[in-house]
Amino acid sequence: MAILRMGHVVGAISGNLGAVNFAQGHNGPYVRRRMRRTDKSAERQLEVRVRIQRLKNLWMELSEEKKELWRATARGVRRLNRLGIATGISGHTFYIKTNLWVITAGYAVQDEPPGALQTPPPWNVEFTVTLPNTYEIAWQGDVQLEPYLLFIFSARPIVGHAVRPIKHWRFTEHTIDPGTPFDIKFDFVEQWGAPAAGEYVAIKLYLLSDLRLRSLPVEAGCIVT
User: Fold this and answer.
1) Which of 49-58, 79-88, 175-184 has the highest mean pLDDT?
2) What is the dihedral of CA 182, 197, 201, 15, to 10 degrees?
3) Neighbours of 10 (CB within 10 A)
4) pLDDT digits (tens, 9 = 90+) for 21-62
5) Contact call for residues 145 and 107 (beta carbons, < 8 A)
6) Based on the number of CB atoms within 10 Å of its own CB, is 53 exposed (0-12), middle (13-18) or buried (19 or more)?
7) Are 85 and 16 in contact (CB under 8 A)?
8) DSSP the chain
9) Cis ω on the peptide bond leading into residue 165 (within 30° of 0)?
10) CA–CA separation, 113 vs 97, rounded Å?
11) What is the pLDDT of residues 109-143, one digit of tens each?
């Protein structure tokens, strides 16, 4: 679906429209042939759809009182769409998006919403890959007083230089270990294959506290040595 921001003619456009795709680059909008639809029977996609359907069913079972709690909290939440415009979110969508992260990590569904404040993001994030065995992440975060989860996404754009922005990320791992170096070799190689020396690879981290919304993402990348 395309998103349009109206100006004197069209202020901005992003998404699919007919046989073409509109995207926003560093130098402004550009048009390309519409990308092929992904394989909707892929195992990972089927798993996500099963989880979403489960959450939809659980939402229907919530009491009206608890649904209203999710709606009230959602009214204080603003997200940025692809054009950088702040948009609202419904209580139903907020419930599903929040709990999709939670059950992906293997934890119980939350019947009540977190607070409307975001979890502070991690900082000083470093990702180093030294062949053949070390795929290490180090980071810091101001979450000592709250339970939280760290979600790790990874990317392998197959280039020899830093890339911004990276469009294709895969959920790779999660952990509750506070700030200590974390090795993701097994999961990274299983998803992407082993990179070669001189290749650029990257990670994206989110923190999620039991008491707050998910943090903003933080990216880090390195040239494999």
Assistant:
1) 49-58
2) -160
3) 11
4) 776 665 666 666 665 555 555 677 788 889 999 999 999 999
5) no
6) exposed
7) no
8) --EEE-SSS-SEEEEEETTEEEEEETTEEEEEEPPPPP-TT-HHHHHHHHHHHHHHHHHHHS-HHHHHHHHHHHTT--EE-TTS-EE---HHHHHHHHHHHHHHTT-PPPSS---SSBPPPPEEEEEEEETTTEEEEEEE-S-TTS-EEEEEEEE----SS--SS----EEEEEE---SS-EE-HHHHHHHH-PPPTT-EEEEEEEEEETTSBPPPPEEEEEE--
9) yes
10) 11
11) 888 887 767 788 888 999 999 999 899 998 887 65
Range list for CATH 2.60.40.10 in the chain? 123-223
Domain at 123-223, CATH from 3.40.640.10, 2.40.170.20, 2.60.40.10, 3.40.50.300: 2.60.40.10
* Least confidently predicted of 33-42, 98-107, 200-209: 33-42
Give the pair of three-digit tokens for residue 22: 């509109």
pLDDT band at 204 (very low <50, low <70, confident <90, very high): very high
User: Tokens 């699919």 sit at which residue?
Assistant: 16
